[in-house]
Amino acid sequence: MDFIDEKDELALEAETRLKAPLEWESTAKCKIIDLKESQSKLPQHHFFREEPMCKASSLLEDSTSVDNYLELIRTWMNDTTSIVALSIKSGRVIGVAVTRVNSKTEKTDTYQRVQQTNAHEKFKYSKYFCIYILCVHPSYQEKSVEVALLNACVHVALSLKMPAIGGIFTCGISQTRARSVGFQLLSEIRYSLWLVNEQVVFDDPGRGNYSAALMGKLLKEENLKHYKLSSVDTDTK
């Protein structure tokens, strides 16, 4: 009887580990794991308030637009490739990267405007790993969490055998940090030239924020041998 109980316990432990989120190597003092749906509130609380395009267009004042954007975010997260950064001390979410595989058939208004140079043509691949939202809690924006998330996104892309990674970066600081991990400018649109009905849409994106930039880089196949990941039980670690 004890043998059977022990066997059941081992089977349960194995099942728990299989269901545990993957933990990705972090270059900052935080833990980076796969995103769970219950951890997806950071964009709603901080992204809409801090992101230059959302802030300049007063998105939070339009509940319909907020609901539509949240629905779009949920669609992006359905691919289950998104990741979150957790505080090592408290375990709370301090950053999120909403990602998915982007194919030629996918189009959004923002991407159509910024992709003056088509990313698929630039990369010469029909698919690439795309960062749609990169958001870090204001208290952690100077603690290298954003760079750690970018590096982890590269690891996720490599694990999926994606040939390239890219994303739209809408503030100057994020563009600088993307360059620091090897992303290059593919195309951009200046906020001062972003017109709808001859009116500037984003007339006050904030100091140092001048454009929405499509940035990315090719991923070399040999790098597949070097990315690190491990399955962990975050409740016990």
Provide an overview of this structure.
The protein has about 240 residues and is of the alpha+beta class. Helices cover about 35% and strands about 25% of the residues. It contains eight helices and eleven strands. It has a nine-stranded mixed sheet, with helices on both faces. Mean pLDDT is about 80; it is low at about 15-20 and about 225-235.
Salient structural properties:
single chain; about 240 residues; alpha+beta; Aminopeptidase; 9-stranded mixed β-sheet; two-stranded antiparallel ribbon; about 35% helix; globular; disordered C terminus
Write a short abstract of this structure.
It contains eight helices and eleven strands. It has 237 residues and is an alpha+beta fold. It has one domain (21-229): Aminopeptidase.
Strand order within the widest beta sheet:
7-10-6-5-4-3-2-1-11
Write the element-wise H/E pattern from the N-terminal end onward: HEEHHHEEHHEHEHEEEEE
Strand residue content: 25-35%
What would you give as the CATH superfamily?
Gcn5-related N-acetyltransferase (GNAT)
Number of domains: 1
In CATH, what is the class?
Alpha Beta
| DSSP helical segment count | 8
Do you know the CATH topology?
Answer: Aminopeptidase
Q: What gap, in angstroms, lies between the N and C termini?
A: 31 Å
Uncertain runs are 13-18, 227-237
Multimeric state of these chains?
single chain
Name the structural class. Answer: alpha+beta
InterPro entries: Acyl_CoA_acyltransferase
GO molecular function, one term: N-acetyltransferase activity
Protein name: N-acetyltransferase domain-containing protein
Organism: Apis cerana cerana (Oriental honeybee)
